[in-house]
Amino acid sequence: MAVAPEYPRLARANRGFLERAVRLVAGAGVRQFIDLGTGIPTSPSVHEVATAADPSARVMHIDNDPIVSVHNDALLANAENVRSIQADIRRPDEILGHPALRELIDFAEPVAVLLVAVLHVIPDSADPAGIVARFTERLGPGSYLVLSQLTSDGDPEAVARSRAATQDTAIPLAFRPHREILGFFDGFDLVEPGLVSVHEWRPVAPAQPTRLVVLGGVGRKP
Question: φ, ψ for residue 205 (rounded to 5)?
Fold first, then answer.
């Protein structure tokens, strides 16, 4: 907050993108969602938006933070067709082979994979593109990828200050250029308006731009 006081507005813009993206995907008939890097529950959550479109929607929330898992487990104790597991997205095979996910998600039907505001905490050394590909290679036609990520194409001073503030922490932020983030959508057709600032992705109301920029996009597997 001291380094980037506009961050709450950016976080809200990213949350708005997530809601609109899930609504679009659900409106396209997708009823299965894998939410990677869920974070502390915030309403409306992915499962709230998805089940509002269809109460039979199935949602798997995944996060590696034990505190997040405790919150999710308590919140979802009585929820039908919604599950939460504690796992690290840097180990996709463990997640894809997890009994809870295999029981809930049927890859013979369209699935939406969500990686919203999570890849910028994955360093290049962990091969984020390979992680995305591993999660999406199982997806059949009509499936979707919803993704957002901090970009290095924002205001240079703001990016530099944020990088410097996190570089010696447990989770340094990885800012990536538009072209690299676009590469995460290989094998998918981007829906309009493409990969843009989350403020500009099908907004329902005008939003004040921020110096730091999160790019967001939704891709459909043909």
Answer: -155, 155
Burial class (CB in 10 A: 0-12, 13-18, 19+), 67: exposed
Name the 3-class secondary structure at 113: strand
CATH number for the domain including 162?
A: 3.40.50.150
The total number of structural domains in the chain stands at 1
Q: How confident is the model at residue 78 (pLDDT cuts 50, 70, 90)?
A: low
Residue at 1 is within a domain: no
Q: Do the domain assignments include residue 2? A: no
φ, ψ at 135 (rounded to 5°)? -75, -30
In sequence order, the β-bridge partners of residue 59 are 33, 82
Beta bridge partners of 215: 149, 197
d(CA 39, CA 13): 16
Indicate the helix (H) or strand (E) that contains 95.
helix 92-96
E runs forming strands in 64-213: 82-86, 112-116, 144-150, 189-190, 196-197
Write down the residue that tokens 């990520």 correspond to: 149
Parent domain of 200? 7-220
The tokens describing 131, both together, are: 């992680």
Q: Where are the beta strands (DSSP E) in 151-188?
A: none
Query: Residue 53 — very low, low, confident or very high, per pLDDT cuts 50/70/90?
Result: very high
Q: Tell me the C-alpha distance between 185 and 119, whole Å.
A: 13
